[in-house]
Amino acid sequence: MRRPYRKLNIDERRILATMLQAKATKTKIAETLGRDRSTIHREIKRNWWHDTEVPLADGYWHMTAQTLADRRHLKRCKLEQHEDLRNEVIGKLKDGWSPEQIAGRLKLEPRAPHQICHETIYQYVYSKSGQSQELGRYLPARQKKRKPRYARKARGEVFPLETSIHNRPEEINDRSQFGNWEGDLMIFERAQGNANVATLVERKTRYTVLLRNNDRKSKPLMNRLIDEMSPLPADARRSITFDRGFEFTSWRDLKTGMGTKSWFCDPQAPWQKGSVENMNKRVRRYLPRDTALLSLPNRYIGSICARLNATPRKCLGYRTPAEAFRDELMKLQR
């Protein structure tokens, strides 16, 4: 596995300078420091001191090399260098903006004195200065320590090939089997915070379940689904089809918690779970994006759900989803 890169510290630079003066090869220096030869070569090239007034002073000096490296680091850290930019970024983070949204908005502002990359904001948040201000608490998904880029899981690993919707059994695709659901998350305006509504639709009967959540993180969402669906018979909760949103990265909890399998649509293909997408449009009649979700009583969400399940559907021969769902449950009990 690839090792994380670490900058040379002052002690390593002192050894490097001493060995250079002793005419040691770069390969020998790299072996002594436990570094790659290219790292040593790059360090000497970048931090070699050139004195225009006293040419004899040219060379690699460990204190000078440390100073040059520190200066470059400060130059890269725009948020350390520019107080006005730093205050603006911190203010947006506290208002609930993500680093990507902050960086993207700054590019649109014609009078913005500075532009910044969202990666730079993340690095600042997880730096000592950012941690001392507890900026991580304002991120959409907080981690105690940020993993190096090479260690972050690609979505292909989070949602492996065997869970692709293309591998879903035909009895699920043609809706002939009961107990297979589609799930999605309805998001509301930023002013409403992280409040959201999880939508579940059973594919065969179109029976709908709405769950209000105060968090968009995957673990709490999966725990909520388990609590809601566990009372059903195992054959009434065989599988759930999701999209590839980060809200569903803890899908394995469904398998271990209640034996429910998960399937995932292709990237950028929400139409592959059309039942729940169509249901979301119906729910939006009652819960538009500017809804103050946290101010609504639980019975209001329940009343919407009951209304949807009591509405006759042409695809069910004008039976209601509640009637169709009840009939399927009775078949399982026989």
UniProtKB/TrEMBL annotation:
The keyword Nucleotide-binding is annotated on this UniProt entry: no
Species, as recorded: Pseudosulfitobacter pseudonitzschiae
Cross-referenced PANTHER family: TRANSPOSASE, TRANSPOSASE INSI FOR INSERTION SEQUENCE ELEMENT IS30A-RELATED
Superkingdom of the source species: Bacteria
The protein's name in its UniProt record: Transposase
TM region(s), chain numbering: none
Gene Ontology cellular component list: cytosol
Keyword line: DNA recombination
Organism phylogeny: Bacteria, Pseudomonadati, Pseudomonadota, Alphaproteobacteria, Rhodobacterales
GO terms assigned for molecular function: nucleic acid binding; transposase activity
Pfam families per the UniProt record, alphabetical: HTH_38 (PF13936)
GO terms under biological process: DNA integration; DNA recombination; transposition
Ribosomal protein among keywords: no
Domain Integrase catalytic, residue spans: 165-329
